[in-house]
């Protein structure tokens, strides 16, 4: 029996993972805004489900919940930072409050969770940390500038965090799904564009739902994504990043290939700014 700590377990990947882990006999420390939403699982699985009320933007509460989980459960093998907030709208038209909520939920909260669990994971000799990211941590679409900001930002944090904590046996994986048939777009905070200057643009159309992809056209299966995340959590040496979905694979691969080609084209100008007489470590 392994023990998992998961944020955002009321729906989506978090709920799917919680159900599957409990069914196979593991323990889950599940956090969510309304723990009553897991009453059905508590009836079926008893004390293998540990629940705590948590708004991940409340850092003080986050620390208390983490302390309580480790105190009550002892070792936690896998931490899954899954809670998130979707925001759709043109950068010019979003409110300050929406921007702050996006950063607070998708960037600051995972950072604070990582900071809170690190001493415990180090003391127990390691563990796996899964951070739900997105193919949107490599590519970008119009009308999702702040969402992409959060994903690109959290990927940068965990790139460095992984290097800092690997010596302690802490393994970090950025999970990067493509489009999955969940209610992400329906649940997202969406601000339809009202500025005449954007009328008729792809970005404005997207904010009004005219360019959105229907669920039946999304390749990702939420159940299979959860299964894949569990497999990653079970690995002794998990990958630093894991794409999930054929769309994520192709779109990210194409974007990275184009970025490498662009970098190669910039080689002459890049080298021209070195000090005279400096020998590059690689040529």
TrEMBL record:
The keyword Oxidoreductase applies. Belongs to the short-chain dehydrogenases/reductases (SDR) family. It holds the Pfam family adh_short. It comes from the Bacteria. Keywords: Oxidoreductase. The keyword Transport does not apply. This is SDR family oxidoreductase. It comes from Streptomyces hyaluromycini.
């Amino acid at each position: 029996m392994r023990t998992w700590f998961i944020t955002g377990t009321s729906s989506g990947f978090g709920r799917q993972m919680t159900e599957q882990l409990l069914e196979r006999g593991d323990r889950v420390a599940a956090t969510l805004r309304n723990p009553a939403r897991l009453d059905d699982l508590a009836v079926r699985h008893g004390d293998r489900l540990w629940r705590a009320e948590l708004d991940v933007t409340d850092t003080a509460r986050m620390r208390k919940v983490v302390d309580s989980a480790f105190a009550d459960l002892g070792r936690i093998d896998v931490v899954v930072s899954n809670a998130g907030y979707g925001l759709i709208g043109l950068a010019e038209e979003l409110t300050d409050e929406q921007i702050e909520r996006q950063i607070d939920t998708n960037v600051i909260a995972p950072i604070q969770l990582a900071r809170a669990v690190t001493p415990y994971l180090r003391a127990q000799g390691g563990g796996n940390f899964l951070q739900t990211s997105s193919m949107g941590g490599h590519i970008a679409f119009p009308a999702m500038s702040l969402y992409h900001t959060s994903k690109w930002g959290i990927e940068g944090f965990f790139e460095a965090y992984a290097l800092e904590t690997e010596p302690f046996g802490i393994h970090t994986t950025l999970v990067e799904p493509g489009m999955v048939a969940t209610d992400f777009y329906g649940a997202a905070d969406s601000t339809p564009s009202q500025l005449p200057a954007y009328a008729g643009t792809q970005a404005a159309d997207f904010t009004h739902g005219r360019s959105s992809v229907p669920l039946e056209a999304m390749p990702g299966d939420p159940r299979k994504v959860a299964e894949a995340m569990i497999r990653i959590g079970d690995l002794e040496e998990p990958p630093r990043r894991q794409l999930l979905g054929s769309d994520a694979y192709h779109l990210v691969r194409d974007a990275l290939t184009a970025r490498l080609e662009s970098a190669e084209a910039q080689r002459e100008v890049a080298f021209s700014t070195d000090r005279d007489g400096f020998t590059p470590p690689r040529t």
